[in-house]
Design goal:
Strand content: 35-45%
Order of helices and strands: HHEEEEEEEEHEEE
Shape: globular
CATH topology: Lipocalin
Radius of gyration: 22 Å
Number of helices: 3
Helix content: 10-25%
Structural class: alpha+beta
Number of strands: 11
Length: 200
């Protein structure tokens, strides 16, 4: 009986150890430059800033009206930043710690909250970047989406985001195309409406 009790105890202990290993998620692996960049953006959580198009070459249109970014929702692993263009509240940038770097996604919604046909495109960091600058080359999902929608020229998109004490910049580059919006971080503005598809 004593032998049976020991065997049972060992088996239960081993089973508990296995269960503990299964249910406890591994911590996200991160590097200093990604963490610093993420924290520099997160420091503005709850605030909104007005911006202006500084580069649009060749001129594309579609960004008329007041431009406002809002660092709206922040967790330890994700930042949700709506980008409002006049009365168009369809765009939200989503920056996520993935465990192998940082991901940028463009969540595009219709006024009824449903996803636009062109949505969740973006990219993933491929290097360490810097505490103030990160680049996001188009990922495979985005390339397949662009090709399917008849925009294969966008397959070489690289999105860049700069965060400095006085300015935040969103930049898109590819061969023959450059677009950039600069936001003034020294003057917070009134918070914009809830972006389409999201709740307070």
């Amino acid at each position: 009986m004593y032998k049976t009790l020991i065997t049972t105890t060992i088996a239960l202990t081993f089973s508990a150890a296995i269960s503990a290993n299964i249910v406890q998620p591994a911590p996200l692996v991160s590097i200093t430059s990604h963490d610093a960049y993420f924290d520099n953006l997160r420091a503005h959580c709850g605030k909104a800033y007005e911006g202006k198009v500084s580069i649009d070459n060749p001129q594309s249109g579609g960004f008329e009206g007041r431009l406002v970014m809002h660092v709206r929702n922040c967790t330890d692993t994700q930042l949700q930043i709506p980008f409002h263009v006049g009365d168009d509240h369809s765009r939200t940038w989503i920056i996520t710690k993935t465990g192998s770097g940082l991901s940028l996604k463009h969540d595009h919604r219709k006024k009824d909250g449903s996803h636009d046909v062109s949505t969740m495109y973006g990219g993933h960091t491929t290097d360490a970047g810097w505490a103030n600058v990160q680049s996001f080359p188009a990922d495979q999902y985005s390339k397949e989406l662009f090709s399917r929608l008849g925009n294969p020229q966008s397959n070489t998109n690289i999105w860049q985001m700069y965060i400095y004490p006085q300015t935040f910049s969103y930049r898109l580059i590819r061969e023959g195309r450059e677009f950039r919006v600069d936001f003034d971080l020294t003057k917070p503005v009134a918070l914009p409406p809830t972006p389409w598809g999201y709740k307070d």
